[in-house]
Design a protein that fits this description.
By secondary structure, the protein is an alpha/beta fold. It contains 21 helices and 16 strands. The chain has 3 domains: 100 residues, Phosphohistidine domain (Glucose Oxidase, domain 1, 3-Layer(bba) Sandwich); 106 residues, PtsI, HPr-binding domain (Enzyme I, Chain A, domain 2), CATH 1.10.274.10; 273 residues, Phosphoenolpyruvate-binding domains (TIM Barrel, Alpha-Beta Barrel), CATH 3.20.20.60. α1 runs antiparallel to α2, α1 packs across α5 and α2 packs across α5. The protein is globular, with a radius of gyration of 25 Å. Bound molecules: phosphoenolpyruvate and magnesium ion. The site of phosphoenolpyruvate has 11 residues, from β10 and α18.
């Protein structure tokens, strides 16, 4: 048995088999081969696997985003069988005696270029599809029969580190837990794990990856941040006991479903949930959240291989609003940049990405992207109770410009004869010290504030949230942060706005009483923490 220690980011225990995360090679190498037939057989097998994956994705998309949006995967399945495409791959293998990966990559480049040079916009768009299916085949070529993962079903995914875009593309139904050698507990990967209600241990060290293999049994203890690989019988029995006790406690919390978030002395607060996409809605409903306080819409962009269209976004926002049946849903506009990188945005590499071209700065300088999202949001607003929130605000002029753009979008929708609700609340995130300090000027401009304590901590304490080496300096209870929150709360209320907290600190039950005393109106937490926070609120007495 080996034991490793890192930072636990969701308190639960998972017991299961390890699957080592295999990252796709960024570049395909040209390798001379001896047996062209064997190579062609590998292609056939990879295509079969790709077809199987695509039909599963199609079925999933059909349920989650509807037929129109799911059709793209049908097109991909058809492309896999295209005669010219397949002939080209076989010819390259036979005539050049090269490996299948290389033949697929060259065919992909040739076909993509051919589509891109066509006049018809529909055919041009197929260029990205060819690249997409080719990448899928190349990925599946590396799943050789004797190398296939021994692990099927639910597994503990272990990696050196996971980028948010990699985390979102994992099949969430089959992930029991994450363990990463590197990374920090404030990263978006950690946040995603919390949203998925699964234990994750971050930063267990490089040695871990050298000692494990697919199929090893492991125990992930999210309470203590410990991982046991090939545990002995006593440890296994002890951890199973803790797991059962934890499940019982969580079961008890379920009794709070349907109850109010009210303190002993009668002070009420909203407890909402944070989500990264439509897939988290089940957890929101199961945990009886009063609404959605933060929908990180950028994950829609991270999941896609191209800018999501207005219709695609509308389908996702509509689904969330309809599922919440009239309860408040706050959708944050695109917060891309820093650790959330999307290839097709073609952002420059920056020295200090957290202080760089990100979030609202991208939206205000690339209004076509911003307006597409706002059109989708306003159109979705007729299906529920929508609030729109803008990230990374630092100045009054940014908010003025945002409000102007919102008015322009509404006028354009009027001209197009498209409906939207007149009751959409507009809010901003307070996640830079600048926004908190000028919150007296910002409050009259908006309906609500939502404090993003993850970034507010990073910017106030000059602590990169991605850097595990300085976590001990990132004191989230630092007086400077609590004072900035209090200042924003006072200014919001002075000007008739409401204020919530949607950063990870909202789930810290040692601060619930203090937040209530500050007059915070809403706490928005990962779905799995909603009932824990409700329990804390119900056990608090502010009259003392
Ligand atoms: C925050 O900064 O606290 C926040 C909620 O936004 P994100 O974690 O997505 O940056
Ligand atoms: Mg933030």
């Amino acid at each position: 048995m080996n034991k490793y220690t890192g930072k636990g980011v969701y308190s639960a225990i998972a017991i299961g088999k390890i699957s080592v995360y295999k990252r796709q090679e960024a570049t395909v190498k040209r390798v001379r081969i001896q047996d062209a037939d064997a190579e062609k057989k590998r292609v056939a097998k990879a295509k079969e696997l790709s077809n199987q994956e695509l039909s599963e994705i199609y079925e999933k998309a059909l349920k989650e985003v509807g037929e129109t949006n799911a059709q793209i995967f049908e097109i991909h399945m058809m492309m896999l069988e295209d005669e010219d495409y397949n002939e080209s791959i076989e010819n390259i293998i036979e005539t050049q005696m090269v490996n299948a990966e290389y033949a697929v990559a060259v065919t992909s480049d040739n076909f993509a270029e051919m589509f891109a040079s066509m006049d018809d916009a529909y055919m041009q768009a197929r260029s990205a599809d060819v690249k997409d299916i080719s990448n899928r085949i190349i990925k599946n070529l590396s799943v050789d029969s004797n190398e296939e993962s021994a692990v099927t079903g639910k597994m503990i995914v272990c990696a050196d580190d996971l980028a948010p875009s990699e985390t979102v593309s994992l099949d969430k139904d089959n992930v029991l837990a994450f363990v990463t050698a590197k990374g920090s507990s404030n990263s978006h990967t950690a946040i995603l794990a919390r949203n998925m209600n699964i234990p994750a241990i971050i930063g267990v060290g490089e040695e871990f990856l050298k000692q494990i293999k697919d199929g090893d049994l492991a125990i992930v203890d999210g309470f203590k941040g410990e991982v046991y690989v090939n545990p002995d019988d006593d440890t296994l029995a002890e951890m199973e006991k803790i797991q059962n006790e934890d499940n019982e406690k969580k079961q008890l919390l379920l009794e709070l479903k349907g109850k109010e978030n009210v303190t002993i002395d009668g002070t009420r607060i909203n407890v909402f949930a944070n989500i990264g996409g439509v897939a988290n809605i089940g957890a929101v409903l199961q945990n009886d959240a009063g609404g959605i306080g933060l929908f990180r819409s950028e994950f829609l962009y991270l999941e896609n291989s191209d800018y999501p269209t207005e219709e695609q976004q509308l389908a996702a926002y509509r689904k969330v609003l309809e599922s919440m049946a009239g309860k408040k849903v706050i959708i944050r506009t695109l917060d891309i940049g820093a650790d959330k990188q999307v290839d097709y945005f073609n952002l420059d590499k920056e020295e200090n990405p957290a202080l760089g071209y990100r979030a609202i700065r991208i939206c205000l300088t690339r209004p076509e992207i911003f307006k597409t999202q706002l059109r989708a949001l306003y159109r979705a607003s007729v299906y529920g109770n929508l609030g729109i929130m803008f990230p990374m605000i630092t100045s009054v002029s940014e908010v003025s410009r945002i409000l102007e753009i919102c008015d322009e979008v509404k006028k354009e929708l009027d001209a197009d004869g498209l409906k939207y609700s007149e009751h959409v609340e507009l809010g901003i995130m307070i996640e830079t010290p600048a926004a908190a300090v000028i919150s007296d000027l910002l409050a009259p401009m908006v309906d609500f504030f939502s404090v993003g304590t993850n970034d507010l901590t990073q910017y106030t304490l000059a602590c990169d949230r991605q850097n595990p080496n300085i976590e001990s300096f990132c004191d989230t209870h630092h007086e400077a942060i609590l004072r900035l929150i209090q200042m924003a709360a006072d200014n919001a209320h002075k000007h008739g706005a409401w204020i919530g907290i949607c950063g990870e600190l909202a789930a810290d039950t040692t601060l619930t009483e203090q937040f209530l005393r500050m007059g915070i109106d809403e706490l928005s937490v990962s779905p799995g923490f909603v009932l824990k926070v409700r329990n804390q609120v119900r056990n608090t007495d502010l009259s003392k």
